[in-house]
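Hello Y.,

Per our agreement to keep a running log of every chain we model this quarter, I'm adding this entry. I've kept the format consistent with earlier entries: sequence first, then predicted structure.
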Amino acid sequence: MKREDAVVIATWRYPEPYDLYSMDGSEEDIADLMNGDYVSARDAEGSLIGFYCTGISARVPGGYDAGIYEEDSLVDFGLGMKPELTGQGHGIRFVEEGIAYVKRSLPEKGIRLVVATFNQRAIRTYENAGFKQTCVFTSPVHGQETEFACMIQREG
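Predicted structure for the entry above:
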């Protein structure tokens, strides 16, 4: 990810209750986005529409205590769509493009993602893309315990 994209993404603000996905625009957030685990996602016209991440950056701290990260046949996957594009039916294509990106890089691995359980529209999208919920756990987010679901897709 280029710095210019990281700067923009770090300032995206999501409305409640999705605001837990917002960053604060800090240099720390920008550096995290540029750590090598993230790639920018663009539409056909070249506009920045989101990002995908894999590896440790896609993990939620509470998942370690829940034991979800012990299986190494899975790649951890995270994604974020530009706030103005969410809730408009673009999610399934965005998720499918992200899955294709992961499968090109790691075709032998299944995919694991974690999503806040209140985010039912994302959960429905992930289910439509072939993910199955395997467990629920809590993890702190901005100082507050939040419930998350672990979802896995073994076949693309």
